[in-house]
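INTERNAL AUDIT FORM
Audit reference: QA-55
Scope: verify that the stored structure record matches its stored sequence.
Auditor: D.O.
Record contents follow.
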Amino acid sequence: STIGLYKKAFFAQPWCNIPPGNPQGVSAPLAPMLRAAIDAGQVGASVYPDRWVDVGTPERLAALNA
């Protein structure tokens, strides 16, 4: 699994054409916005060297904390 941390500016022009606040409830695929940002050198990545657990649900979190 992976995690993404996005700055608010990513969901604005030029990467995203949905108006601020998304008043019409438009959905859009993330991949094209990411590709455009990658091509513009605006995306970075790093490896997390420790144990990573995809909690996913309250039940999985409870099991991990048990």
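Auditor finding: record pair retrieved intact. The chain has a mean pLDDT of 89.
Action required: none
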